[in-house]
Amino acid sequence: REHADRWWGAALTISLGLLLTYWFVPLAGLHAAGLGTVRGMQALGACGLVFVAWFAPVARDVLNSEIAQWLGDRSFSLYLVHLPVVVAVTAFLGGQPHLGGVLVLSALIAFPLAAGFHRYVEQPAHRLARNIGRRISNARSPEPKPRPIMADLIPAQRAPVGAWPASSKAG
After folding, report:
1. Most exposed of 9, 72, 82, 156 (fewest Cβ within 10 Å)?
2. Are 92 and 109 in contact (CB under 8 A)?
3. For residue 154, what pLDDT is reported?
4. Per-residue pLDDT averaged across 94-108, rounded?
């Protein structure tokens, strides 16, 4: 088990490193010509993370935790609100503040904002969509027809045209 945990830890570290290669482009001196390679490395890293999440028992436990489930439920709301929050925080801090400060302050604002957006916008929108879908479905559904009986499914046995009717021979 300990050996497997080390292997999964190494796979996670390598996958994260590949996924974050874009951040190292300026450090490595790569320009537009190297971005295709970087994008391929990022894709490989993303695939590695999915692999680890799918097969590593520890990763599954983490992703099944209450906090991970809570974040997953609100991820679309977070996706919608994060960029305006980051832009507003950046502008508030003077236009070119330290990246760490922007990330921390943006997270402190975006997560509660996303939770509120989820509660007061996303969930009611889901309920409305379900109700409308149910009404449309009920309005379009005709009354159920009775199921055919077996005799309706089997074509009638007919004698071919011009054939003599079957006769019974008395013995």
Report:
1. 156
2. no
3. 58
4. 90
